[in-house]
């Protein structure tokens, strides 16, 4: 997941200008980035600040040092159960002092105080764990863009007060024998895109209208073919996401062209961060390996 997280960080900074530069004068914002994964260890926290739109962005140049950083596990009433202290390991990069396994269906809070006295807070509720139950039925190979899509049959992930939202992340190994599928091959050839940009690819959000509820209580998720950038072995990660990830990804897709709205009607990115921008989100994930076959010529 780490390389996918870095991709989101780039998208966040690219999109943030849509909100930040509608003001008469530029205002600097603190930018945070951290993602909790159920059953994973506590993640690093990245901390930086925005730059004026005419300046080239560099995390190294904008990193915020010397901040107090904590992640707290909370009760439903937001009282603290336990606190996890962080330490700075590189400029702007903070890691937990002690290891902790992220618990699903728990409320966590990010607390930051900079050495200039600014405070940033955000909360996330970690979605319930789920698992792929048809792992043994997944075929050895799927022909790209054939009628038979890769389908994961999963147990439901619980999230309070709403349906569950998913998205797929598709990873390939950079040292594999990589052959691009036609859409991405065209991007590389005709639009000077970098092949490395597609080593990790993500789908749009999959909501209740796009997956099937089965009689046994499981859910069938179809992997969109547009998510597949390479033939061969692909690691497919299904992610159930919290409200913060959902709001960010949904509003980010509108900002980057996933909408027919005119510029004056496009909403700002939803960050759900108090005292800054960025994302403190969470997800539950499960992973399968599939082989994507090139169609017969």
Shape: globular
- What is the helical fraction, as a range of percent? 10-25%
Q: Sheet bearing the most strands, described?
A: 13 strands, mixed
Number of helices: 4
Question: What's the β-strand tally?
Answer: 16
Which consecutive residue ranges, at least 5 long each, have pLDDT under 50? Answer: 1-18, 254-267
The helix/strand class is: alpha+beta
Mean pLDDT: 86
Radius of gyration: 20 Å
**Helix-strand pattern:** HEEHEEEEEEEEEHEEEEHE
Task: Domain count, please report it.
Answer: 2
The share of residues in extended strands comes to 25-35%
CA-to-CA gap between the ends?
Answer: 35 Å
InterPro entries: DUF4249
Pfam family, one: DUF4249
Protein name: DUF4249 domain-containing protein
Structure report:
InterPro entries: DUF4249. This is DUF4249 domain-containing protein. Pfam families: DUF4249. It comes from Fodinibius salicampi. With 297 residues, the chain is an alpha+beta fold. The protein has two domains: 2-128 and 242-282, no CATH class; 135-240 and 285-293, no CATH class. Helices cover 15% and strands 34% of the residues. The protein contains four helices and 16 strands. The strands form two sheets. Strands 1, 2, 3, 4, 5, 6, 7, 8, 10, 11, 12, 15 and 16 form a 13-stranded mixed sheet that branches. The protein has a three-stranded antiparallel sheet with strand order 9-14-13, with no helix packed on it. Strand 13 and strand 14 form a beta hairpin. The protein is globular. It starts with a helix and ends with a strand. Residues 1-18 and 254-267 have low confidence and may be disordered.
